Amino acid sequence: MYKKSKNLTVFLFLLPALILFVGILVWPIIASVHHSMYVYPTFSDRGDYVGFKNYVDLFGKQYDFGKAVINALILAALSVFIQLPLALGLALMLGKGIKGERVYLSVYFMPVLISAVVIGMLWEKIYNPIYGLVVKAFEFFQWSGLPPEGLLANKKTALLAVFIPTIWQYVGYHMLLMYAGIKSVSPELREAAMLDGATDGQVNRYVIIPIIKPIIKVSIIFAITGSLKSYDLIKVFAKDAYNCSYKVPSLMLVRYAFHNQGGIASAIAVMMIVLCFGFAILINWMFKERDPYGKK
Amino acid sequence: MAKNNSNTSFDLEMYSVKKTNKFVKALIYAGLVVWLLIDLFPLYYLFTFSLKSTNEITGSNVIGLPKEWLWSNYGRVFNLGKKTGKNPLTATREFFASGGIERCFSNSVFVAVATIVICLLAALMATYALTRIAWRGSKTLNSIFMLGITIPMHIALYPLYVSFSKMGIVKGYWGLIIPYAAFSLSMAIMVCTGFMNDIPKELDESACIDGCGLWGTFFHIIVPLMTPALATMGIYIFLQCWNEFMFASVFSDEAHYTLPVFVSNLKGSNITDWGLVGAGLVLATFPMLFVYIFMSRKIQESFMVGAVKG
Amino acid sequence: MKKVLALLMAAVMVCSLAACGGDTPAPAASTEPAASTEPAASTEPAASTEPAVTADEPVTLTMWCIATEGDSNRHAYEQAIAEMAEKYPNVTLEWEAIENEAYKQKIAAAMASGEGLPDIFFTWSCAFLGDFVNQGRVYCLDDTLAKYKDELPESMLGNTTYDGKHYGVPTTMNIVALFANMDLLKQAGWDKVPENYDELIQCCDDLVANGIIPFGCAGGETWCVTEYLEPIIEKSIGADALNDIFLGRASYDNADVAKAVDTFQEMIDKGYFDPAGASLPNDDVKANFIAGRTAFYQNGTWNCADFASNPDFLPKVKVTEFPVIDSSKSKLGQLIGGPSDTLAVTASSPNAELAAEYAAELGKLICHYGYLDGCGLPAWIPYGDTSNINPLTQSVAEICANADAYVLFGDTAMSAVDKDPYLEAVAKVYGKELDGAGFIAELKGAIR
User: What residue ranges in chain B does DSSP mark as E strands?
Assistant: First the structure.
């Protein structure tokens, strides 16, 4: 009797979350897997069952999904290897306790609160090849080498041009995560290390970073999955999205979903989920291997 | 809980500075100041550009302060989007005219608040069941919820659109609130778990002995103790939904536009009135930043505690 | 002016505008089992019930369109809607203007589910509307339009006719035209617009020699690239050949198409195109043209309204059609364009019949005011005082009066599925990732 009522209570407690989770997250995934096996001659009418043909086509020449994945991975790599070290550096500097710490902290975090659409439109102006800040700066310092078509249109610089506003916006976010971790390191530990004659660098390297490792892990997962699903900013830059320098999975997904290719769009959705999960698992695994005390 | 708060506001100055040499210190300050400027400059640029004429923006005065401060750009933003909607005669009488910037702002606030309330409630209850009640499968279910963190919202766009429109909730607030709440849920549960683990289990047990029962324990012990955590989680959820663009642009009509949609509509075809666009961007962005300036400590502190929990 | 209009109307009647429907149904329509999705079937020809113009119980109609603040058509919509409010005092129109790209997504999504649709919606003709007609979402306007036979020529309905049934109320028609800034041309020693292809090339060379950039083209929006590429292809291979390709009756595997693409790229290589245009949206490129950064701007004739409303700029600008490249295959008067801006009514509308009548009247007024503003040529037979039409639109009317054939804009003529690979390939051509041979190779596989 007790057991039964407990189970019922557990169920009732879980019910709101389960409804949201199953209805809005799980069901669309299942639906996407299902849709991806069919062709859609019009937006809503399902056509023939084609098995995995959509996936095969996706990586074929016409859709060239591989290119989109590579672009997303480049963004992810830039995030992990440039944005996160920058955030960590700022966090370490601030975490040491510095005059005006709060001001820095507040300002660094500020861009996180701005909509990516606003940021995109702002940076579009900054990149404008005729009167943008970038071209004006190059003129002012008499540098050369700026492509005349602008950073956004040049194939080699397009992704970089997407990445710069992303760093600008999200360094503060990761910095704050790491700063919080650093501040939670017991001051006695730091003091003890200093008393043993460790320099700041050594304290950071051997005391602080190992302790905030779980937070770094979370940051890495966020940075990678964030890059894989980045949409708003790129959408503003890519405009109608036919320029393949900006080809990323989310942009393709939305385009094909609205252009009568529900099967392809669903296949992209499934691939995105696989990629996001894959990376989350991979990173968890990597951090487990190297950290014997794993769970903290 | 209390222990952690004291940690974050701990003053470390006395421990660290003595061994740092002057040069390194200068370098650190230089680095911090450079990044400070990098963060602030685009905002300065945005603000000044909102007060200039198109002519100044597109060449004659790109970086400097406006030669003539065109506050009228702002006045014109408030006229945007208002002539549409209902019959112009009645629409002018409505303070929050459909599609105008005030309306979009209030829509954004309403959607965010409702999302926070729903998501918090669901997350609190679920976390309680997952961490405080022992039952088989709780660990597994928790990991399944955690997988949700990485799921991109985009994949749900089409399937949800079809089912929501069948339910008739597509052109309204709920079409946004429900997906936002669902996609913030995993994160909220994760943060909530961290906080709830800080509440000693003995409290539950004593409550149990007092005959409180699971529901009683939840409402009388857990919820009050979780109050500080709610702010943290609320901010997480708020950040997730305040700036969301894709769902907002597809799942709403003019009466329910949120701020990001308003901003993207500024870019309507053929507009070259960049001062007006700039003013719109500023109005959509700066209120949020002002709130942040006054509440930054609260926002950051709850954010930091949340991060450590996560 | 009157004479020009008469000429225009005559020309339009003769020309084959029936690109999408008419007697030769579009490929999309013919492959579809359209009989099953008969939108008009449910709504009987209810001419017996007198349309409720008089003070009946109030009705609210909803409309979606793309006439956002700053759109050239905005003014025309506002005036037309205000006039409609007087004409139909019992009808409240709640209208919503959505930014172009966002609108395409929104309407497609709403059509897919069939829920949350407005009563009246703006649409592009041909395949764009055709997809919705195939889904059974569009109300058949045969009965309504029958009443307007004398005001709306049948030839203007070709692009919105599917299987012999009318589904749309056209408002304006537009073509692609070449706008020239005569001040800049004068600086390069040209007092007139180049009249043939050799002159155009010579003119561009002279402009470049004088440090003036000839063309501005928005690479950020691929449809703007097609406004250059399509006339070049048409003037190289001929209107019929291009039309066949767009409508799927012929393959892209055509050496002349490859050659035309190469011609376009040669022009880019010779520095005729503003490099800054590659990343810019169309608004900026147009602003650059008005500001005198580029000498030519090739785009739709709806731009006449914006140029005409700028009193400093209007005296400088002239409009012409792109010259013939291969005179053995093409000739002057072969144009890109046709009636495309259209209002349609959803089949699910609870007041579909009233909405249809309202849409027809509204379309007529939008056409009227849009024509007066210079947003395009009228699809309806113009009325009232049209003597103040701006000189640019008048020149366009003259060009159309001498028209030989129209080929509808490629991205409107093609179905959503075919449009993607086409536009993607066009973007690659402008980005120099594909040459002519690559272009036809990529498209002959992708498009059926």
Answer: none
